[in-house]
UniProtKB/TrEMBL annotation:
It is an enzyme of class 2 (transferase). Residues 20-246 form the Radical SAM core domain. Gene3D superfamilies: Aldolase class I (3.20.20.70). This is biotin synthase. Pfam families: Radical_SAM (PF04055). Pathway: Cofactor biosynthesis; biotin biosynthesis; biotin from 7,8-diaminononanoate: step 2/2. Its EC number is 2.8.1.6. Keywords: 2Fe-2S, 4Fe-4S, Biotin biosynthesis, Iron, Iron-sulfur, Metal-binding, S-adenosyl-L-methionine. GO terms for molecular function: 2 iron, 2 sulfur cluster binding; 4 iron, 4 sulfur cluster binding; biotin synthase activity; metal ion binding. It comes from Dethiobacter alkaliphilus AHT 1.
Length: 331
């Protein structure tokens, strides 16, 4: 049995649902009932959020035969990558390794794995089995919030991520969630560090899911999310320099370039597209269709582009007035 995101299943012709935007990556989920206990995740040990949820997306289950057929369909249906999320279920990752081999035997698409590994040796096994990329999620970038929300040591997790990034240059990604107790200043500092280490960053907006300990906390304000998207995009493209950026009480107040130039730098809207591995668009992972999109899974309209840039600029004018970190902890 394997879970396939509802949008992916539609692209694979395994399920009939109407989708506003097609995924460009096939999202698969292996295992359920994680041994980890992340407070935002419906798959965590103590969550009652439902095994068929991850983020706000539903993941119906299918047989391995369905998956094989679906992978064939996917290639002809604008899917350019496969992403397999492995839920941690014990000390061994045998079923993950078996599934990687199965996917590679049935598809020529590049495959990335998002898994909670403990040591580089486990990354080695995943690459040897056929993974093209590996995501080691930091999720929470404030060390105290990391301990509260995910458990364990942020420092050790970051070190593992950096060790893998140095050993497999250009093949390592991470996930960072905005709105889980971090300041903008520490978020941008880690962007800068990871970009210099050649780590690909995927930004997520904290999404409260019913049945999880953080189910009634608020998602991040859109202005704050847009500031972080713009910072990531401009740093990645070497348009700005972290050392020249300004912060006040942890809030980003200046990118170190004239505000009047920013509109030009952000033209086209690429800063506000879903970030992460190539061709990963994660449609509606953080938001419902029809609401403001934190991550655009498709090109922005001119109107959307202008609104997004206005959010970045408005944040700067108001910088310093907003309280950094917006999460109301439930525990
Ligand atoms: S960035 Fe996208 S494709 Fe890469 S591991 Fe994360 S969800 Fe998967």
């Amino acid at each position: 049995m394997i879970r396939i995101s509802a949008g992916t299943a539609a692209c694979m012709k395994l399920k009939k649902i109407k989708t506003d935007v097609h995924p460009t990556t096939a999202y698969l989920l292996l295992g359920e009932g994680c041994v980890m206990n992340c407070s935002f995740c419906p798959q965590s040990r103590t969550s009652s959020g439902g095994a068929s949820r991850l983020g706000r997306v539903t993941w119906p289950s299918f047989t391995r035969e369905d998956l094989k057929e679906g992978l064939k369909e996917a290639e002809g249906n604008n899917i350019k990558r496969v992403c397999l999320q492995g839920v941690r279920q014990g000390d061994k990752q045998e079923s993950l390794l078996r599934t990687i081999k199965e996917i590679k035997n049935n598809s020529s698409l590049p495959l990335c794995i998002s898994a909670w590994i403990k040591k580089p040796q486990e990354a080695e096994e995943l690459f040897a089995a056929g993974a093209d990329r590996l995501s080691i999620a930091l999720d929470v970038v404030n060390p105290d919030a990391y301990k509260d929300i995910k458990g364990g040591s942020y420092k050790e997790r970051l070190q593992l991520l950096l060790n893998c990034a140095r050993r497999w240059p250009g093949k390592i990604s991470t996930h960072i969630i905005i709105g889980v107790g971090e300041t903008e200043e520490e978020t941008v500092a880690i962007f800068d560090k990871l970009i210099k280490e050649n780590v690909t960053i995927a930004l997520f907006a904290f999404t409260p899911i019913k049945g999880t300990p953080l189910g009634s906390s608020a998602p991040p304000k859109i202005e704050r999310y847009r500031r972080m998207q713009a910072a990531l995009y401009l740093l990645k493209n070497k348009v700005i320099d972290y050392a020249a950026m300004n912060f006040k009480k942890g809030v980003l107040t200046g990118y170190g370039v004239p505000i009047s130039d920013l509109r030009e730098y952000l033209k086209g809207g690429s800063a506000f597209l879903t970030s992460g591995c190539p061709d990963c668009n994660r449609p509606f992972y953080n938001e419902s269709p029809g609401s403001v999109l934190y991550n655009y899974p498709r090109p922005l309209t001119l109107e959307e582009e202008e609104a997004a840039v206005d959010c970045v600029l408005a944040g700067l004018e108001e910088g310093g007035n907003e309280v950094a970190g917006n999460l109301a902890f439930n525990s």
